[in-house]
Design brief:
homodimer, 7 strands, 323 residues
């Protein structure tokens, strides 16, 4: 087994597509092998630059990501793409757009594309996405683009993984910048005004600029607005340059270090959650106890706090250290 | 203290607005008093009918909720409204629309309105919303309307709390029914076609009907489509009747019982998570260890799995029961 694991890890590091796909499947299925391979690969990570791309559905995020990927490939940089859909119960291959994209890059070994969707309650999607990003990092992808379908809290959690976050908007989506979700305004390192050949682009850019002027600079960085027309490949170079400028601005900065530590803090908490829950519910008997107790609570025969205490007693975790 | 708690619980049961607000604040702040009051009130819950209202921003959910609330008030039924915004870092009073709504109902003691937003990572928003719904239930509100801002995974988790879920759509939102999120189609017990006086309403209703015809019936229930124009109070009665029909259809059914048990299963898991995390990270030393380890992981001096094991050892939770 250790020989096989070493071999597998070696294949991932060499960028072998089948070895990478196998590892991602292990991550998605909460297979214990996932932890082993990630642990083995961890020292090889920390090299990739992670770019998160979020924005409302229909703003053209996929096209933008494709253009950015092509831009980097032209410069011989290897690229990973993770397309995340928290609202879909399906994974990977099931997403049509993803298949089409895979085909267009099928002959290019320097690019790896994977879709991810929601799976169970043990371990969130953000955690799995983070693990896949680590894996692509270990596999030598220099740029990893993480794209979400919409703009919910889950998606915000996901783009928080990134070193640089793009928020994509387009003119005439019915709601103007005033209605933009507060969270989105805060996470954007760069704002992309896509479909900028459409009516209303100037007004949107103006509104956005006015709003961004009110946001305090973060360590001397004021998020720029970059205009693109992704389907015509217009503005891709300007966008790539803005990302590069952001990267240089924060490289080796104290803020960057603090941001990464904060990210790992969050990820350790998630990992801890999975470990602890597994201790209480990880066997069939635990699951059965949970179901029986849930039924009693639903019928008001027991209160939920008493039910949780019973589960903890059963798992030998009853006594509190304090209080 | 027990006297005070009993008194407080008594006030909540009597529907005292200040006592309710104080309890909600305790829930939002993860104050230990929240657990005490909820535990004390739990036997008085299970009476309210919870209606979840979700749909894309701009579809007019708030107006619909207001109309439904007024409908029930006219029938002397007490109403609670919980407006949830997972993307906003602000709570309650900060939301402008909420203030305006509070004013219009300010003189009516039979209605209680509260906004909720994201808070920290300990205990999710769905859990807090569920606790507030329990509280309003104990406070004697006969109908509790839970309204979300958008349609992300968080919001889907929130409306899952409800006994009946309304999915709100409107004509001409750019995307047609084909693009509707898979999750939305599945959770809708009733589909509301709001702003149905606008162009495209007939086409949308037709599309929706065709799509719903493909979804298998759940225990003899096929989700109806109700047309409304909330700002003109058109269709409110039809909508209330559809909700009432749904309620009757599933009352005392086996499916309803199973659904409630499944909901409590999920809530017990969340409660368990909070308890267990608190055991490891609930003191200042735990928090400091976590931060130090996160910094080491960020610098690749330690892998995340080793870091989590260290945290478990520190909390006296090291040994696994199995494996």
């Amino acid at each position: 087994m250790p020989v096989t694991l070493d071999h597998w890890a070696e294949q991932v590091r060499a960028g072998d597509v089948r070895a990478i796909s196998r590892a991602i499947t292990a991550i998605e299925n909460h297979d214990p092998a996932a932890e082993k391979i990630l642990r083995s690969l961890f020292p090889s990570t920390g090299q990739a630059y992670l770019v998160g791309v979020t924005g409302a559905p229909g703003t053209g995020k996929s096209s933008l990501v494709d253009r950015l990927a092509a831009y980097h490939r032209k410069r011989k940089e290897t690229v990973g793409i993770i397309a995340v859909d928290p609202t879909s119960p399906f994974t990977g291959g099931a997403i049509l757009g993803d298949r089409i994209r895979m085909q267009s890059h099928a002959t290019d070994a320097g690019i790896y594309i994977r879709s991810m969707a929601t799976r169970g309650f043990l371990g969130g999607l953000a955690r799995a996405t983070g693990d896949v990003a680590l894996l692509l990092d270990a596999a030598g992808k220099q740029v990893v683009l993480i794209e979400t379908v919409g703009v919910g809290q889950d998606e915000i959690d996901i783009v928080r993984l990134a070193d640089c976050t793009l928020v994509v908007l387009m003119p005439g989506m019915g709601d103007d910048v005033q209605n933009m979700k507060a969270g989105l305004m805060e996470i954007g390192d760069i704002f992309v005004l896509n479909k900028s050949d459409r009516e209303g682009a100037d007004r949107l850019e103006q509104q956005l600029g006015a709003m961004l002027a009110l946001v305090p600079e973060r360590n001397g960085w004021r998020p720029p607005v970059v205009r693109t027309v992704a389907i015509e490949n217009k503005g891709t170079e300007e966008l790539a340059q803005a990302i590069s400028a952001f990267r240089k601005h924060f490289q080796a900065s104290r803020e960057n270090k603090a941001k990464k530590a904060a990210l790992w803090k969050q990820r350790l908490v998630e990992l801890l959650e999975v470990r602890l829950l597994d201790r209480v519910l990880g066997d069939p008997q635990g699951e059965r106890s949970l179901e029986a107790l849930a039924a009693e609570v639903a019928e008001r025969k027991k209160d939920p706090y008493a039910a949780v205490s019973e589960l903890l007693v059963r798992a030998g975790l009853a006594q509190d250290r304090k209080r």
